[in-house]
Amino acid sequence: MFEKVLIANRGEISVRVIRALREMGVTSVAVYSDPDREALHARLADEAYHVGPAPATESYLDAQSLIEVAKRSGAEAVHPGYGFLAESAAFARAVEGAGLVWIGPHPEAIEAMGSKVESRRMMAKAGVPMVPGTEGSIGSAKQVRLFGEEHGFPVAVKASAGGGGKGFAVAGDASEAASAFGRASREGEAYFGDGSVYVEKYLPAPRHVEIQVVRDRHGNAVHLGERDCSIQRRHQKLVEECPSPAIDPTMREAMGEAALAAAEAVAYDNVGTVEFLVQKGEATGEFYFLEMNTRIQVEHPVTEEVTGIDIVKTGIRIAAGEPLPFSQQEVSWQGHAIEVRLNAEDPSNDFAPSPGVVTAYEEPGGPGVRVDSSLRGPGVVAESYDPLFAKLIVHGADRREALARLRRALAEFRVEGISTTLPFYRAILDDETFVSGTYTTGFIAERMQRLQIQPTTTRETGEVSGKRSREVEVEVNGKLFKVRVFGGEGASGGPPRRARGETRRASTSEGAVKAPMQGTIVKVLVEEGQDVVADEPVCILEAMKMESEVRSQKAGTVSEVRVVAGQTVRSGDTLISVE
């Protein structure tokens, strides 16, 4: 076993790996950027090293700097976590080239599964069920249209190197072929440096079900069952549960065998996840390969809770050359687990990013409740990185008990200072589709308008619908009450502030289209002299790893374009002028 391991990551996954290493008696080495100097992962690790400023490209994505820190610290291995460089074959090779051990699958497996075109080819050869699609990448929107005419619309256009919902666009009919091709290609180039795309038949209302696989360097392989990840927004997962409410033992066995065949096809040698789509209403056994994630997954805790297997430790032991300590026959599933992701986003405002200072933070506890978090108390959710800052996981004897524990834990969870996804999860527990387990990946699009999502009070003194508020405790006849007192602007002191929900759409006062949040301009969609209509997108802004269209609320002619692709802007900066 290793004596010292560097975690090339940040946030809650870095904390999770640090804790696993400590239980294994292995020294942990953390890295941190400027805004993460006081972060929990940097304080919790045995050693911590500075790797650069806030931009990820100059810190957590700086492969050479990470390797230099690993060598300087005396680490023997590098754990990449998820995100950043976790699925970079080039980084894995660089780590191994520096004489260090990569805690993950070998680079060739990452490379093969990182290319959606290549992985489709290999999976088809291995006999894994596939959604109809092109054999290779395509070069024009015309090919999208021709594929749709042959197989029927809608079709999905996907970046070959894409993942996590990036580089994904749907063409509902032939008229949308060009825009879908352009968006998927552009996002593939922007996020992954590869603009090549392919097309496949789009399944309009599938379940998204994945299988956790584990394969060591001695050829031993097992699967740990499925996770249902169907509740998503913008193809980003929000809720995961194990086992899936839609999968019976027969399908579980078939999907497990297909997932192991996928791992065998690339001689996989660590923990990984094979993702499938299951079309609603189809007979048992009807499922299709989507992709393979060659790393630890955000949602791995639900599988750990149900199987009792520590997936993080297992991956570390495999990298150290140890054989799997369990066989397929020894894997069993006990009870039901559900995970919800706490993101710094405002679900009442189209999940707009909400980074900032967390002024109050209290986690729930009690039987069957687990929290994996980047916070231990009040702190900061940095705007430079992913909005995920914590995960709430509950485990019960069955799904009914897990739902009851989730409801209790959500009621106890307190986060103030920023908007979070907590109100969304509280709302779906009152939705019959979620409670019954009959949801699909279309859940949010179909049900969002019906959910009773309460606006978030965004600071310790709060603000809802333009009114400042504060929570106070009062005692009446010996009974304690907690009440929130609302007032107009300035009711609780300090200068008046704009209500959070009013800043989501770009401001157009005096013809100026302004940035609704800090971020980076991905693409400018208009040019000077161009006529625009009200609500027309004028540019695309990326913030906290999510793209948002910035729209003009006014019809007119573009008189000035003040930004270019790649430019960083602040909230309120004028982007476009319309007269």
Can you walk me through this structure?
- With 579 residues, this protein is an alpha+beta fold.
- The chain has five domains: 4-103, 3-Layer(aba) Sandwich (Rossmann fold), CATH 3.40.50.20; 132-201, 2-Layer Sandwich (Dna Ligase, domain 1), CATH 3.30.1490; 204-334, ATP-grasp fold, B domain (D-amino Acid Aminotransferase, Chain A, domain 1), CATH 3.30.470; 341-430 and 449-460, ATP-grasp fold, B domain (D-amino Acid Aminotransferase, Chain A, domain 1), CATH 3.30.470.20; 503-578, OB fold (Dihydrolipoamide Acetyltransferase, E2P).
- The chain is built from 15 helices and 33 strands.
- The strands form nine sheets. It has an eight-stranded antiparallel sheet with strand order 13-12-9-10-11-14-21-19. A five-stranded parallel sheet has the order 3-2-1-4-5.
- A hairpin with a 2-residue loop joins strand 6 and strand 7.
- Helix 4 runs antiparallel to helix 5 and helix 7 crosses helix 8.
- The longest helix is centred in the middle third of the chain and has 17 residues, at 249-265.
- The chain is globular, with a radius of gyration of 24 Å.
- The N and C termini lie far apart (67 Å).
Task: Summarize this structure as a short list of keywords or feature phrases.
579 residues, single chain, eight-stranded antiparallel beta sheet, D-amino Acid Aminotransferase, Chain A, domain 1, alpha+beta, Rossmann fold, 33 strands
Identify low-pLDDT runs: 458-466, 488-508
CATH topology type of the largest domain: D-amino Acid Aminotransferase, Chain A, domain 1
Q: Quote the beta fraction.
A: 25-35%
Shape: globular
Q: Distance between termini? A: 67 Å
Overall mean confidence score, pLDDT: 89
Largest sheet: 8 strands, antiparallel
CATH top level label of the largest domain: Alpha Beta
The rounded Rg comes to 24 Å
Strand order of the largest sheet: 13-12-9-10-11-14-21-19
CATH architecture of the largest domain: 2-Layer Sandwich
How does the helix and strand content classify structurally? alpha+beta
Q: Bin the helical content.
A: 25-40%
Could you give me the name of the CATH homologous superfamily of the largest domain?
Answer: ATP-grasp fold, B domain
Q: What is the count of structural domains?
A: 5
Q: What's the number of helices?
A: 15
Question: Count the strands?
Answer: 33
